[in-house]
């Protein structure tokens, strides 16, 4: 696991062959309590016109694949059951009986942890210079709350939270990302992903939010694949990338980097996916703790003067979250370190670095 990514699932080895004479045309993968199920196709040997679907039992979430998807992961299915089915084109000549070499092989499954299992997984350590070991990022009592709880009480923070996404990386690891600017641009940490190859295997989930304050049911997330990494930097700990299927996520809006460094004491809020949870907000209006503000606007991250520090509550999986100024509702930091104070790379530095891309 890369440093800073939160583990949210486990890989299981399976050996299932579907289709034609090799086996059944459909196979159900069920893991009671799992938060998601994601299958990997070792091979897809099919005739033209044939295809495979991966869906939940009632087909309200379904994805279609053809032969070129062999050797790749399918998009995850939310919930504990995925049904993989081979669909065959009409065969009027009756030649399929001789094609026993055809078939679709599923060799691996990623099973998402349940909430109970997730609570037992330690948060990842972040490599802040001069420190080692696991770093706690909840500073005092955790006062972050489900985003939906603030739909009326703090509508600005709630709307801004729609622009963030849960990044499922390599099937079992998590970071947070968000749309930056009106173009097809996503921002997360360099320690979450660095290459286009990693982005291709990264699911980007928008609208993964609780449907009711304090409840367990979630809205149906909109899932797209990561695409090209456009710019990345270790010292400023950012990766800018695009997504495949941008038209499906434009409705969730975008955030803007602040071009000015915030002053000490500036009130903040942080929408995020801590420990893989549906969107939570630290620093929303109405929270009892008033510690979500800039502690030091000139803090050392991977370099001197690179960061802004704060005591806003975060957790494993929050890496890559936007830290917004309540005054401007612009992003003043890209969260990447825990440790109380927690810190993020200065938004004004990122704005200058990424101006040509945004």
Automatic annotation (TrEMBL):
Coiled coil: none annotated. It comes from the Bacteria. InterPro entries: Peptidase_S1_PA (IPR009003), Peptidase_S1_PA_chymotrypsin (IPR043504). This is Serine protease. It comes from Actinoplanes ianthinogenes.
């Amino acid at each position: 696991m890369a440093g800073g990514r939160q583990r949210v699932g486990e890989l299981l080895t399976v050996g299932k062959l579907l289709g034609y004479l090799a086996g059944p045309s459909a196979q159900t993968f069920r893991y009671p309590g799992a938060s998601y199920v994601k299958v990997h196709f070792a091979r897809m040997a099919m005739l033209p016109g044939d295809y495979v679907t991966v869906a939940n039992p009632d087909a309200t979430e379904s994805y279609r694949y053809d032969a070129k998807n062999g050797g790749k992961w399918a998009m995850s299915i939310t919930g504990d059951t995925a049904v993989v089915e081979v669909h065959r084109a009409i065969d009027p000549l009756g030649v399929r009986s001789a094609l026993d070499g055809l078939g679709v092989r599923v060799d691996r499954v990623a099973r998402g942890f349940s909430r109970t299992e997730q609570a037992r997984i330690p948060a990842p350590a972040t490599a802040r210079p001069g420190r080692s070991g696991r770093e706690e990022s909840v500073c005092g009592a955790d006062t972050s709350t489900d985003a939906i709880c603030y739909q009326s009480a703090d509508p600005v923070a709630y709307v801004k939270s729609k622009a963030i996404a849960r990044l499922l990386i390599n099937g079992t690891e998590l970071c947070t990302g968000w749309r930056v600017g009106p173009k097809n641009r996503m921002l997360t940490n360099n320690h979450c992903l660095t290459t286009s190859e990693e982005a291709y295997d990264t699911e980007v989930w928008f609208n993964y939010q609780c449907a009711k304050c304090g409840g367990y049911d979630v809205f149906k997330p909109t899932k797209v694949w990561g695409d090209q990494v456009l710019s990345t930097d270790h010292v400023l700990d950012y990766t800018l990338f695009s997504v495949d299927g941008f038209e499906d996520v434009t409705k969730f809006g975008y955030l803007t980097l602040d071009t000015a460094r915030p002053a000490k004491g500036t009130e903040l809020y942080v929408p995020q996916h801590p420990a893989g949870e549906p969107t939570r907000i630290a620093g929303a209006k109405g929270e009892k703790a008033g510690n979500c503000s800039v502690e030091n606007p000139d803090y050392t991250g991977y370099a001197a003067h690179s960061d802004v520090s704060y005591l806003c509550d975060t957790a494993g999986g929050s890496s890559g979250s936007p830290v917004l100024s309540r005054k401007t509702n612009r992003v003043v930091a890209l969260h990447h370190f825990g440790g109380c104070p927690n810190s993020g790379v200065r938004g004004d530095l990122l704005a200058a670095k990424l101006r040509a891309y945004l």
